[in-house]
Amino acid sequence: MPSAFRPDAFAGKTVFVAGASSGINLGIAHGFARAGARLALISRTAERIQAAADTITAAGGTAIGMAADVRDYAAVEAALVRAQDELGPIDVVISGAAGNFLAPVVGMSANAFKTVVDIDLLGTFNVFRASFDHLNKPGASLIAITAPQAVNAMMFQAHACAAKAGINMLIKCLAMEWGPAGVRVNGISPGPIADTEGMARLAPTPEMEARYKARLALRDYGTKDDIADAAMYLSSDNARYVTGTILDCDGGSKLGDASADALKKPQ
Ligand code: HXC
Ligand code: NAP
Protein backbone atom coordinates (compact mmCIF):
# COMPACT_ATOMS: atom_id res chain seq x y z
CA MET A 1 0.00 0.00 0.00
CA PRO A 2 1.50 3.42 -0.91
CA SER A 3 2.38 5.69 2.02
CA ALA A 4 0.22 8.77 2.60
CA PHE A 5 3.43 10.78 3.00
CA ARG A 6 4.56 12.68 -0.09
CA PRO A 7 8.09 12.18 -1.47
CA ASP A 8 9.06 15.66 -0.18
CA ALA A 9 7.33 15.40 3.24
CA PHE A 10 10.69 15.20 5.08
CA ALA A 11 12.92 16.87 2.46
CA GLY A 12 15.83 18.69 4.15
CA LYS A 13 15.34 16.82 7.44
CA THR A 14 17.96 14.68 9.18
CA VAL A 15 16.81 11.44 10.83
CA PHE A 16 19.00 9.38 13.23
CA VAL A 17 17.98 5.74 13.71
CA ALA A 18 19.54 3.48 16.39
CA GLY A 19 19.36 -0.26 15.75
CA ALA A 20 18.87 0.28 12.03
CA SER A 21 20.72 -2.63 10.42
CA SER A 22 17.56 -4.72 9.99
CA GLY A 23 13.87 -5.19 10.62
CA ILE A 24 11.43 -2.55 11.79
CA ASN A 25 14.03 0.17 12.33
CA LEU A 26 15.50 -0.23 8.86
CA GLY A 27 11.92 -0.15 7.54
CA ILE A 28 11.38 3.16 9.36
CA ALA A 29 14.63 4.50 7.86
CA HIS A 30 13.45 3.56 4.36
CA GLY A 31 10.10 5.26 4.96
CA PHE A 32 11.77 8.56 5.91
CA ALA A 33 14.25 8.22 3.01
CA ARG A 34 11.38 7.76 0.53
CA ALA A 35 9.89 10.97 1.98
CA GLY A 36 13.10 12.88 1.26
CA ALA A 37 15.02 12.76 4.58
CA ARG A 38 18.77 12.22 5.05
CA LEU A 39 19.49 9.21 7.27
CA ALA A 40 22.17 8.49 9.89
CA LEU A 41 22.07 4.86 11.00
CA ILE A 42 23.81 3.02 13.85
CA SER A 43 24.11 -0.58 15.04
CA ARG A 44 26.84 -2.70 16.64
CA THR A 45 28.23 -4.18 13.46
CA ALA A 46 30.08 -2.07 10.88
CA GLU A 47 29.37 -4.49 8.00
CA ARG A 48 25.66 -4.84 8.79
CA ILE A 49 25.03 -1.11 9.24
CA GLN A 50 26.99 -0.19 6.11
CA ALA A 51 24.96 -2.76 4.14
CA ALA A 52 21.76 -1.21 5.52
CA ALA A 53 22.87 2.31 4.52
CA ASP A 54 23.74 0.95 1.07
CA THR A 55 20.15 -0.26 0.57
CA ILE A 56 18.98 3.32 1.07
CA THR A 57 21.55 4.90 -1.25
CA ALA A 58 20.83 2.20 -3.86
CA ALA A 59 17.18 3.30 -3.76
CA GLY A 60 18.24 6.92 -4.44
CA GLY A 61 18.34 8.16 -0.84
CA THR A 62 21.06 9.65 1.37
CA ALA A 63 22.38 7.59 4.29
CA ILE A 64 25.49 7.06 6.40
CA GLY A 65 26.02 3.93 8.49
CA MET A 66 28.11 3.98 11.69
CA ALA A 67 29.07 1.23 14.12
CA ALA A 68 28.03 2.20 17.66
CA ASP A 69 26.76 0.05 20.52
CA VAL A 70 23.90 1.87 22.28
CA ARG A 71 25.30 0.62 25.62
CA ASP A 72 28.41 2.77 24.97
CA TYR A 73 27.50 6.42 25.59
CA ALA A 74 30.72 7.77 24.06
CA ALA A 75 30.19 5.77 20.87
CA VAL A 76 26.60 7.02 20.52
CA GLU A 77 27.76 10.59 21.14
CA ALA A 78 30.50 10.27 18.48
CA ALA A 79 27.96 8.98 15.93
CA LEU A 80 25.64 11.91 16.66
CA VAL A 81 28.51 14.41 16.23
CA ARG A 82 29.37 12.87 12.85
CA ALA A 83 25.71 12.80 11.82
CA GLN A 84 25.30 16.49 12.63
CA ASP A 85 28.59 17.42 10.91
CA GLU A 86 27.74 15.56 7.70
CA LEU A 87 23.95 15.85 7.52
CA GLY A 88 23.02 18.85 9.70
CA PRO A 89 21.19 19.22 13.04
CA ILE A 90 18.97 16.26 13.80
CA ASP A 91 15.21 16.60 13.37
CA VAL A 92 14.08 13.07 14.22
CA VAL A 93 15.62 10.41 16.50
CA ILE A 94 14.38 6.82 16.50
CA SER A 95 15.61 4.62 19.37
CA GLY A 96 14.86 1.03 18.40
CA ALA A 97 17.89 -1.11 19.23
CA ALA A 98 16.81 -4.20 21.15
CA GLY A 99 17.87 -7.68 22.19
CA ASN A 100 15.52 -10.51 23.02
CA PHE A 101 15.28 -14.26 23.56
CA LEU A 102 12.68 -16.53 25.10
CA ALA A 103 13.83 -17.69 28.53
CA PRO A 104 12.19 -18.37 31.89
CA VAL A 105 13.63 -16.32 34.75
CA VAL A 106 15.22 -19.43 36.28
CA GLY A 107 16.91 -20.06 32.91
CA MET A 108 18.32 -16.55 32.83
CA SER A 109 21.54 -15.39 34.52
CA ALA A 110 21.76 -11.93 36.08
CA ASN A 111 23.90 -10.98 33.10
CA ALA A 112 21.26 -12.24 30.64
CA PHE A 113 18.61 -10.02 32.27
CA LYS A 114 21.04 -7.09 32.43
CA THR A 115 22.03 -7.49 28.78
CA VAL A 116 18.49 -6.94 27.52
CA VAL A 117 17.79 -4.10 29.96
CA ASP A 118 21.08 -2.45 28.98
CA ILE A 119 20.40 -2.62 25.23
CA ASP A 120 16.72 -1.63 25.36
CA LEU A 121 16.34 0.75 28.32
CA LEU A 122 19.81 2.13 29.04
CA GLY A 123 20.36 2.25 25.27
CA THR A 124 17.29 4.43 24.81
CA PHE A 125 18.43 6.72 27.62
CA ASN A 126 21.87 7.00 25.98
CA VAL A 127 20.48 7.70 22.50
CA PHE A 128 18.01 10.34 23.71
CA ARG A 129 20.33 11.96 26.28
CA ALA A 130 23.24 12.21 23.84
CA SER A 131 21.01 13.52 21.05
CA PHE A 132 19.68 16.52 22.99
CA ASP A 133 22.58 18.85 22.15
CA HIS A 134 22.45 17.87 18.45
CA LEU A 135 18.74 18.42 17.86
CA ASN A 136 17.19 21.01 15.59
CA LYS A 137 15.18 22.75 18.33
CA PRO A 138 12.36 23.70 18.53
CA GLY A 139 10.51 21.09 16.48
CA ALA A 140 12.55 17.91 16.97
CA SER A 141 10.74 14.57 17.36
CA LEU A 142 12.11 11.69 19.46
CA ILE A 143 10.51 8.25 19.17
CA ALA A 144 11.31 5.09 21.15
CA ILE A 145 10.19 1.70 19.85
CA THR A 146 8.47 -0.08 22.72
CA ALA A 147 6.11 -3.11 22.69
CA PRO A 148 2.73 -4.28 24.03
CA GLN A 149 4.77 -6.39 26.48
CA ALA A 150 5.54 -3.14 28.33
CA VAL A 151 2.02 -3.28 29.74
CA ASN A 152 0.93 -6.90 29.11
CA ALA A 153 3.07 -9.45 30.94
CA MET A 154 4.31 -12.36 28.82
CA MET A 155 5.82 -15.71 29.79
CA PHE A 156 9.60 -16.03 29.28
CA GLN A 157 9.91 -12.29 28.55
CA ALA A 158 10.64 -10.82 32.02
CA HIS A 159 13.74 -9.00 30.75
CA ALA A 160 12.09 -7.50 27.65
CA CYS A 161 8.83 -6.69 29.47
CA ALA A 162 10.70 -4.88 32.26
CA ALA A 163 12.94 -3.01 29.82
CA LYS A 164 10.06 -1.87 27.60
CA ALA A 165 8.00 -0.81 30.66
CA GLY A 166 10.97 1.37 31.68
CA ILE A 167 11.10 2.85 28.19
CA ASN A 168 7.41 3.80 28.39
CA MET A 169 8.04 5.79 31.57
CA LEU A 170 11.26 7.34 30.22
CA ILE A 171 9.25 8.63 27.23
CA LYS A 172 6.79 10.38 29.55
CA CYS A 173 9.46 11.90 31.82
CA LEU A 174 11.47 13.24 28.88
CA ALA A 175 8.31 14.61 27.24
CA MET A 176 7.75 16.71 30.37
CA GLU A 177 11.38 17.84 30.74
CA TRP A 178 12.03 18.61 27.06
CA GLY A 179 8.64 19.93 25.95
CA PRO A 180 9.56 23.50 26.96
CA ALA A 181 12.53 23.29 24.56
CA GLY A 182 10.18 22.33 21.73
CA VAL A 183 11.21 18.67 21.71
CA ARG A 184 8.40 16.11 21.49
CA VAL A 185 9.03 12.60 22.86
CA ASN A 186 6.73 9.71 21.96
CA GLY A 187 6.75 5.94 21.55
CA ILE A 188 5.44 3.44 19.04
CA SER A 189 4.27 0.06 20.30
CA PRO A 190 4.27 -2.33 17.33
CA GLY A 191 2.30 -5.54 17.47
CA PRO A 192 3.71 -8.61 15.73
CA ILE A 193 5.37 -7.42 12.52
CA ALA A 194 5.96 -9.77 9.58
CA ASP A 195 9.45 -10.77 8.43
CA THR A 196 11.30 -9.59 11.53
CA GLU A 197 13.88 -11.11 13.84
CA GLY A 198 11.58 -10.32 16.75
CA MET A 199 8.78 -12.57 15.49
CA ALA A 200 11.25 -15.22 14.34
CA ARG A 201 12.28 -15.44 18.01
CA LEU A 202 8.81 -15.14 19.60
CA ALA A 203 6.85 -17.33 17.12
CA PRO A 204 9.42 -19.51 15.32
CA THR A 205 7.04 -22.13 13.85
CA PRO A 206 4.07 -21.76 11.42
CA GLU A 207 1.80 -23.18 14.17
CA MET A 208 2.89 -20.51 16.66
CA GLU A 209 2.46 -17.81 14.01
CA ALA A 210 -1.10 -19.03 13.27
CA ARG A 211 -1.94 -19.02 17.00
CA TYR A 212 -0.57 -15.46 17.32
CA LYS A 213 -2.71 -14.24 14.40
CA ALA A 214 -5.85 -16.02 15.65
CA ARG A 215 -5.67 -14.09 18.94
CA LEU A 216 -5.34 -10.67 17.26
CA ALA A 217 -8.42 -8.50 16.68
CA LEU A 218 -7.17 -7.69 13.16
CA ARG A 219 -6.14 -11.35 12.56
CA ASP A 220 -2.83 -10.60 10.80
CA TYR A 221 0.73 -9.45 11.38
CA GLY A 222 1.55 -5.82 10.58
CA THR A 223 4.22 -4.62 8.16
CA LYS A 224 7.36 -2.55 8.58
CA ASP A 225 5.67 0.13 6.45
CA ASP A 226 2.85 0.34 9.03
CA ILE A 227 5.42 1.30 11.64
CA ALA A 228 7.26 3.68 9.29
CA ASP A 229 4.00 5.52 8.62
CA ALA A 230 3.33 5.78 12.38
CA ALA A 231 6.83 7.24 12.91
CA MET A 232 6.35 9.75 10.10
CA TYR A 233 2.97 10.81 11.50
CA LEU A 234 4.48 11.39 14.97
CA SER A 235 7.37 13.39 13.42
CA SER A 236 5.15 15.49 11.15
CA ASP A 237 3.57 18.87 11.83
CA ASN A 238 0.21 17.07 12.04
CA ALA A 239 1.41 15.74 15.42
CA ARG A 240 2.75 19.09 16.66
CA TYR A 241 0.57 18.89 19.81
CA VAL A 242 1.31 15.22 20.55
CA THR A 243 3.92 14.37 23.19
CA GLY A 244 4.37 11.77 25.91
CA THR A 245 2.16 9.35 23.97
CA ILE A 246 2.62 5.68 23.14
CA LEU A 247 1.01 5.02 19.76
CA ASP A 248 -0.23 1.41 19.58
CA CYS A 249 0.23 0.15 16.01
CA ASP A 250 -0.50 -3.44 16.89
CA GLY A 251 -3.62 -4.87 15.25
CA GLY A 252 -5.27 -4.84 18.68
CA SER A 253 -2.49 -6.81 20.36
CA LYS A 254 -2.63 -4.78 23.58
CA LEU A 255 -6.37 -5.42 23.93
CA GLY A 256 -5.77 -9.07 24.74
CA ASP A 257 -7.06 -12.38 23.35
CA ALA A 258 -9.65 -11.79 20.59
CA SER A 259 -9.68 -15.38 19.31
CA ALA A 260 -12.86 -17.23 18.48
CA ASP A 261 -12.13 -19.47 21.49
CA ALA A 262 -12.03 -16.44 23.78
CA LEU A 263 -15.46 -15.38 22.50
CA LYS A 264 -17.14 -18.76 23.21
CA LYS A 265 -19.73 -18.51 25.94
CA PRO A 266 -19.40 -21.00 28.79
CA GLN A 267 -22.01 -23.84 28.40
C1 HXC B 1 19.20 -17.54 28.28
C2 HXC B 1 20.73 -16.22 27.19
C3 HXC B 1 20.15 -16.55 25.94
C4 HXC B 1 19.03 -17.45 25.92
C5 HXC B 1 21.82 -15.18 25.61
N1 HXC B 1 21.76 -15.38 26.93
N2 HXC B 1 20.85 -15.87 24.98
N3 HXC B 1 20.26 -16.71 28.35
N4 HXC B 1 18.59 -17.91 27.11
N5 HXC B 1 18.43 -17.81 24.79
C6 HXC B 1 22.66 -14.84 27.94
C7 HXC B 1 24.11 -15.26 27.74
O1 HXC B 1 24.34 -16.57 28.21
C8 HXC B 1 24.83 -14.19 28.56
O2 HXC B 1 24.75 -14.47 29.93
C9 HXC B 1 23.98 -12.95 28.32
O3 HXC B 1 22.70 -13.42 27.88
C10 HXC B 1 24.58 -12.06 27.25
O4 HXC B 1 24.78 -12.83 26.07
P1 HXC B 1 25.79 -12.34 24.92
O5 HXC B 1 25.62 -13.29 23.79
O6 HXC B 1 27.15 -12.12 25.49
O7 HXC B 1 25.17 -10.89 24.61
P2 HXC B 1 25.32 -9.94 23.32
O8 HXC B 1 26.43 -10.43 22.44
O9 HXC B 1 25.33 -8.57 23.84
O10 HXC B 1 23.95 -10.26 22.50
C11 HXC B 1 22.71 -9.78 22.97
C12 HXC B 1 21.59 -10.80 22.78
C13 HXC B 1 21.53 -11.37 21.33
C14 HXC B 1 20.29 -10.11 23.18
C15 HXC B 1 21.83 -11.99 23.72
O11 HXC B 1 20.43 -12.25 21.18
C16 HXC B 1 21.42 -10.26 20.31
O12 HXC B 1 22.44 -9.75 19.84
N6 HXC B 1 20.19 -9.84 19.92
C17 HXC B 1 19.99 -8.75 18.94
C18 HXC B 1 18.91 -9.08 17.95
C19 HXC B 1 17.56 -9.33 18.59
O13 HXC B 1 17.49 -9.89 19.71
N7 HXC B 1 16.52 -8.95 17.88
C20 HXC B 1 15.17 -9.15 18.34
C21 HXC B 1 14.66 -7.89 18.95
S1 HXC B 1 12.97 -8.21 18.99
P3 HXC B 1 26.01 -15.14 30.77
O14 HXC B 1 25.53 -15.19 32.18
O15 HXC B 1 26.21 -16.50 30.15
O16 HXC B 1 27.16 -14.21 30.56
C22 HXC B 1 12.19 -7.76 20.28
C23 HXC B 1 10.76 -8.25 20.26
C24 HXC B 1 9.87 -7.27 20.95
O17 HXC B 1 12.70 -7.09 21.08
C25 HXC B 1 8.70 -7.85 21.59
C26 HXC B 1 8.91 -8.18 23.05
C27 HXC B 1 9.28 -7.05 23.95
P1 NAP C 1 15.97 -6.67 14.71
O1 NAP C 1 15.87 -6.71 13.22
O2 NAP C 1 16.82 -7.67 15.39
O3 NAP C 1 16.42 -5.20 15.13
C1 NAP C 1 17.20 -4.93 16.26
C2 NAP C 1 18.31 -3.99 15.84
O4 NAP C 1 19.02 -3.58 16.99
C3 NAP C 1 19.30 -4.60 14.89
O5 NAP C 1 19.53 -3.67 13.85
C4 NAP C 1 20.57 -4.77 15.71
O6 NAP C 1 21.70 -4.57 14.87
C5 NAP C 1 20.40 -3.62 16.69
N1 NAP C 1 21.11 -3.78 17.96
C6 NAP C 1 21.04 -4.81 18.84
N2 NAP C 1 21.80 -4.57 19.90
C7 NAP C 1 22.35 -3.36 19.70
C8 NAP C 1 23.24 -2.55 20.46
N3 NAP C 1 23.69 -2.96 21.66
N4 NAP C 1 23.63 -1.35 19.95
C9 NAP C 1 23.18 -0.93 18.74
N5 NAP C 1 22.33 -1.64 17.98
C10 NAP C 1 21.93 -2.85 18.46
O7 NAP C 1 14.52 -6.79 15.37
P2 NAP C 1 13.05 -6.25 15.06
O8 NAP C 1 12.15 -7.40 15.32
O9 NAP C 1 12.95 -5.53 13.78
O10 NAP C 1 12.85 -5.22 16.28
C11 NAP C 1 13.08 -3.83 16.13
C12 NAP C 1 12.44 -3.06 17.28
O11 NAP C 1 11.03 -3.27 17.28
C13 NAP C 1 12.93 -3.48 18.66
O12 NAP C 1 12.98 -2.36 19.51
C14 NAP C 1 11.86 -4.44 19.12
O13 NAP C 1 11.82 -4.57 20.51
C15 NAP C 1 10.63 -3.74 18.56
N6 NAP C 1 9.46 -4.60 18.41
C16 NAP C 1 9.46 -5.58 17.47
C17 NAP C 1 8.32 -6.33 17.27
C18 NAP C 1 8.27 -7.35 16.15
O14 NAP C 1 7.19 -7.86 15.81
N7 NAP C 1 9.38 -7.70 15.53
C19 NAP C 1 7.18 -6.12 18.05
C20 NAP C 1 7.22 -5.14 19.04
C21 NAP C 1 8.36 -4.37 19.21
P3 NAP C 1 23.16 -5.22 15.05
O15 NAP C 1 22.94 -6.68 15.32
O16 NAP C 1 23.80 -4.94 13.72
O17 NAP C 1 23.77 -4.48 16.20
TrEMBL record:
<dbReference type="Pfam" id="PF13561">
    <property type="entry name" value="adh_short_C2"/>
</dbReference>
<dbReference type="InterPro" id="IPR036291">
    <property type="entry name" value="NAD(P)-bd_dom_sf"/>
</dbReference>
<dbReference type="InterPro" id="IPR002347">
    <property type="entry name" value="SDR_fam"/>
</dbReference>
<protein>
    <recommendedName>
        <fullName>NAD(P)-dependent dehydrogenase (Short-subunit alcohol dehydrogenase family)</fullName>
    </recommendedName>
</protein>
<keyword id="KW-0521">NADP</keyword>
<dbReference type="GO" id="GO:0008670">
    <property type="term" value="F:2,4-dienoyl-CoA reductase (NADPH) activity"/>
</dbReference>
<dbReference type="GO" id="GO:0009062">
    <property type="term" value="P:fatty acid catabolic process"/>
</dbReference>
<dbReference type="InterPro" id="IPR045017">
    <property type="entry name" value="DECR2-like"/>
</dbReference>
<keyword id="KW-0560">Oxidoreductase</keyword>
